[in-house]
Every structure is written in C-alpha cells, then in structure tokens.
Amino acid sequence: xxxxxxxxxxxIMTGGGDCPGLNAVIRVVTRAAIxxxxxxxxxxxxxxxxxxxxxxxxxxxxxxxNILTVGGTILGTSNRADPVRFAIxxxxxxxxxxxDVTPRVLEHVAERGLDGVVxxxxxxxxxxxxxxxxxxxxxxxxxxxxxxxxxxxxxxxxFTTAVQxxxxxxxxxxxxxxxxxxxxxxELMGRNAGWLxxxxxxxxxxxxxxxxxxxxxxxxxxxxxxxxxxxGKRFTLIAVSEGAAPKGGHQTVEKIVHDSPDPxxxxxxxxxxxxxxxxxxxxxxxxxxxxxVQRGGTPVAFDRVLATRFGFKAIxxxxxxxxxxxxxxxxxxxxxxxxxxxxxxxxxxxxxxxxIAMARAVGTAVGD
Length: 368
Ligand code: F6P
Description:
Blueprint: E1 9-14, H1 22-37, E2 40-44, H2 48-53, E3 56-59, E4 86-90, E5 96-99, H3 102-112, E6 116-121, H4 123-134, E7 139-143, H5 159-180, E8 183-188, H6 195-203, E9 208-210, H7 218-230, E10 236-241, E11 253-256, E12 264-266, H8 269-281, E13 285-289, H9 301-320, E14 325-330, E15 333-338, H10 354-361
Parallel strand pairs: 1-2, 1-6, 6-7, 8-10, 8-13, 9-10
Antiparallel strand pairs: 2-3, 4-5, 11-12, 14-15
Helix pairs in contact: 1-9, 5-6, 7-8
The site of 6-O-phosphono-beta-D-fructofuranose has 13 residues, from strand 12.
C-alpha cells in the first residue's frame, strides 16, 4: 500500500450506539496508517461531539494494543451530537434549541491539520458525515451496528456477536419456559429491522418470531400459543423485535430523546404483548427485555475479522485519496459506495428473505 495522495494526518471517530468490533477497526486503521503509510492518527472522542468540542488525542501504535478483544470503543461515542442540528441549550418549555455548528467543526479540523476523518458508525453517523462532506470535510465511512440495517452492505460487524449473545440469553430463558410451562417473550433490539430477532430467534428455536416487517395479528399469536398447549407442548417461546407492531397499530415507544438525530427509542412491546396473551389465553406469561446486554461484550472471531477487513479497506481508500466512500460488503466482497447513498436510510428484512421461509418450514409462527 502506498500513500499516493500524501495524506499526513487523519482523524478517526466512532459515532452512534456502540457495538462489538469498533476497537478492531480503530486498531487496524491506526497501525496501518502509522506503519505502512506514515500517516499520523488523531482519535476523536465521543463521535461528532469530539469534533464539536475539539476533544481529540494523538493515537500511537501502543494506544491500540490489547483492544482487539475489548467490546465498546476506546474513543467513546455519542448518538446525540449532530453537527448540523446540535442542541446548544433548552427553551422555556425544556425543549432543545438547535444550531448548525459545522463551522466550529471545520475550524477544529483545520486547527488539528486533519486531511479527513474515518467515521465508524451507522446510518445516523453517515448522515452527519454526508453533511460534513458537503461542507468540505473529506470522510471515509465504516459501517457498524448490531441491527445489521445499513443499506448497501449485506453485513455489519457487531451483528454476529449480538446474535450470539441474544441466542445465549434466549437459551437460558428456554429452560425457565419449559420448567414453569409458561409463555415467555424475549424482546430484542434492532430498531425498525428484524434481522437480530430473525437470526437469534431461529438459532434458539423460538416458536414464534415477531419482526417489524410483518405486523402481527394478536389473534394469530394467541392461537399459536394455545395450539401448542393443546398439542401437549407446555411452553411457548416468543422472540419479538422492539420495533414489532400489531396489524393496523403502532410500535411501542419507550422514550423520545429530543436532542438525538434519531429521537425515538423503541421498547416495551413484549410487556404489552405478555399482558394481552395472558388475558386472552389464561396461559402464564412473562416478558424479558434483553436491552443493552446485546450491544456489549467481546466480539466473536467473525466480527473481529470483518471489522479488521473493513478498517483495512478504509485505510486503503485514504492511501488512494478515494474519500467520501463507505466501505461495504457485497456478494461476499469488500467494496465501496458513496457515503451519501446510505444517509438516513435503513435496510429492513425483505418479506421473501429465505430465513422467513425456513422459520415457517420448521413450524415457527411469524405472527401473520
Ligand atoms: O442501533 C443500535 C441500537 O441498540 C438499537 O437496536 C436500539 O433501538 C438503539 O440502539 C438503542 O439506543 P440507546 O442506546 O440510545 O438506548
């Protein structure tokens, strides 16, 4: 690899929710930049917040030692700081007052002498990066998310680890479901995409899978539980996405984070459903919300390799001066698309996804 475009110093940041594998990207980008290209690396703290507040630090090869197996991100992250719409205070009613602080970001970038920034994040971070690109800051995007919902890439790192974690949790709940003869609901993250539920639900042999892409029919869900009960199956295990909603109904919102670019936090659908199922079927029902346990922990080997592959591609792009691209995986190969093509867009589960057909084939109901 040759530094043909003579970049001398780059920034690197992690934005949005954390996920396993972020540190593997920071490690490969830092080491390859320093040792193979002679480029200095500046770590930006807490995503866009570090660019806004000028909180950055020089990264050495030693700084990224022993981080490959560590979950989260050594740089910190934030899913609330959008430079174009940054909350600078609150009005009399307590609502945030927003300001476009990109001029401040560009000043800090110039002050630090950055040729560009490697932005590791999801669609929210890429929306922010696309806005900065328009204002003249070169960026390279590296996709991450446990939700696996980034457009144009068939996989993001963090997803496989989250599937493994969620599967292990569901396996544990399986024991209690069968011992106590209960209907047990397990709620998984994923926002508006059902990837996590589909994969973890299939892997753990759930009896019913409810994903946002297939609005559920409460009668059908209750009938599936009762059918199992009549057949002598003494428990039913249901994996439900936080974004699942009844036919003709709405998603369950846990809270609104007003100063976040994506303010809606979903959560609680399993609790609502548990009450409804128990009332209608008289079967003892419980709900467990897995929550942030799905985002933490050491990345599985697959995610360490994928994150390293994506990070290496990012540094190759820096070397070529091919800025403003997002690293993606398409047909099993590492490739690129323009960052702006994914900004604010999500990849949900298509209704003809083979996993849905496989779920049905093994007798799993999908709530329709
Ligand atoms: O995008 C990752 C994710 O974990 C989603 O699955 C979830 O809806 C959201 O982030 C939760 O965000 P927060 O950490 O702000 O509660």
